[in-house]
């Protein structure tokens, strides 16, 4: 996948392009770097992945609305067609039979789950009946999905009934669609862009760390400056108190001198206070600016971190769900394989037995055929001999008839010759 693909070391031109891209991204919104660099998929593999996910979402939407479609089958009969109507009615009958069988087995206390694994415990005949019903329902669902795939209008008409879908199915479809969007975004992101995003996040983190250190240093400097100003003010206050006490002592000697000294001290105090207040205001303004910048950076980083955490959590949940579904499908395939293998073994034994019977029958048939052949040859030989004898008898009879005719003719000739001689 593009995530696991290792990118080659960047060339000087690509490095320059990367620096230019970073500068442009820094000038714009910091979160825009998380957007993919392309808007369309370019490879056949990624397009196939998204196509498979879209087809899967469509099938899930159809399956989640099967019960509603069966319930209002008459209202949708003009759109679905005869073939889909027949398949849905057959599915309804299979589902009712399945529910009846489960209710019967649970009522008799012969069906339960063991160790939380979902293994069925009961007689072999009951388990076999239940498995046969399950296979029939699965085959019916596959057939219905195939018919919906061949009829896009009927598929869209059923999917338009989304208001009838239950909350759990809606949440599952929504999560699967979000997973499709996340995967689509991942497929649009190249390894180089992924690396640049990681580098940008590291730079943001480093800048945040540096800003935090700078703010801490400035706050320490401000605290030291405030402490210094407080110390100076304390010193000034101590000096003022000393001066006031001195003035109280000198009040007896010079009222004017005390007043003048007091005014000078107050002026000096006000000047120092103004200078100190100006410095404090400037430092406080710098602190407000830095805190505002820190708040902006923290807000941006928290938003980006929250978005990334949400995506990571969704991906982990989707992966976990797919792993569980894969394990369940593999378990069903293994069960189906074992059943088919058992049937194959039984049929193979029957085939071997039939072959043995066939060999015996073939041998008997060969013997009968050989006897028939010998009988036919004997019959043909007898017929040939009979034909020869008939021909011989015919020739003998013809020869004998010819001999008799010739003998009669000779006797007649002799009689005529004697008659002629007697007349003379």
UniProtKB/TrEMBL annotation:
Region Disordered, annotated ranges: 1-22
Subcellular location: Cytoplasm, Cytoskeleton, Flagellum axoneme
Keyword Cytoplasm found: yes
SMART domains: IQ
Main location: cytoplasm
InterPro entries on file: DRC10, IQ_motif_EF-hand-BS
Coiled coil: 273-300, 337-385
Keywords for this protein: Cell projection, Cilium, Coiled coil, Cytoplasm, Cytoskeleton, Flagellum
Described function: Component of the nexin-dynein regulatory complex (N-DRC), a key regulator of ciliary/flagellar motility which maintains the alignment and integrity of the distal axoneme and regulates microtubule sliding in motile axonemes.
Family the UniProt entry places it in: Belongs to the DRC10 family.
Oligomer status and interactors: Component of the nexin-dynein regulatory complex (N-DRC). Interacts with CFAP52.
Protein name, entry field: Dynein regulatory complex protein 10
Natural source organism: Pelusios castaneus
Lineage of the species this protein comes from: Eukaryota, Metazoa, Chordata, Craniata, Vertebrata
């Amino acid at each position: 996948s593009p995530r696991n693909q290792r990118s080659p070391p960047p060339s000087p031109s690509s490095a320059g392009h990367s620096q230019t891209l970073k500068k442009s991204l820094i000038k714009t919104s910091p979160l825009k770097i998380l957007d993919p660099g392309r808007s369309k998929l370019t490879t056949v593999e990624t397009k196939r992945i998204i196509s498979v996910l879209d087809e899967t979402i469509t099938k899930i939407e159809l399956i989640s609305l099967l019960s509603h479609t069966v319930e209002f089958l008459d209202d949708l009969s003009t759109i679905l067609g005869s073939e889909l109507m027949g398949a849905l009615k057959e599915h309804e009958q299979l589902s009712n039979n399945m529910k009846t069988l489960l209710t019967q087995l649970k009522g008799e206390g012969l069906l339960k789950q063991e160790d939380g694994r979902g293994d069925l415990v009961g007689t072999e005949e009951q388990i076999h009946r239940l498995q046969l019903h399950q296979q029939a329902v699965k085959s019916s669902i596959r057939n219905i999905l195939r018919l919906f795939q061949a009829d896009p209008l009927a598929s869209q008409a059923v999917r338009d009934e989304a208001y009838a879908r239950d909350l759990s199915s809606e949440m599952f479809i929504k999560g699967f669609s979000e997973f499709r969007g996340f995967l689509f975004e991942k497929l649009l992101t190249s390894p180089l862009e992924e690396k640049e995003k990681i580098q940008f996040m590291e730079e943001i983190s480093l800048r945040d760390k540096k800003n935090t250190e700078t703010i801490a240093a400035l706050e320490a400097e401000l605290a030291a400056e405030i402490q210094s100003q407080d110390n100076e003010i304390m010193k000034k206050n101590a000096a003022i108190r000393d001066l006031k006490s001195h003035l109280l002592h000198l009040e007896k000697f010079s009222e004017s001198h005390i007043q003048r000294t007091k005014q000078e001290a107050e002026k000096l105090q006000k000047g120092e206070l103004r200078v100190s207040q100006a410095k404090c205001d400037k430092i406080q303004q710098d602190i407000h600016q830095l805190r505002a910048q820190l708040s902006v950076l923290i807000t941006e980083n928290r938003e980006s971190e929250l978005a990334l955490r949400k995506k990571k959590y969704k991906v982990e949940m989707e992966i976990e769900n797919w792993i569980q579904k894969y394990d369940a499908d593999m378990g069903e395939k293994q069960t189906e394989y074992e059943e088919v293998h058992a049937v194959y073994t039984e049929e193979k034994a029957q085939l071997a037995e039939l072959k043995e019977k066939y060999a015996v029958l073939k041998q008997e048939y060969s013997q009968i055929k050989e006897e028939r052949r010998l009988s036919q040859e004997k019959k043909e030989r007898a017929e040939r001999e009979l034909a020869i004898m008939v021909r011989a008898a015919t020739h003998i009879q013809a020869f004998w008839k010819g001999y008799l005719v010739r003998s009669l003719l000779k006797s007649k000739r002799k009689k005529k010759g004697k008659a002629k001689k007697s007349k003379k």
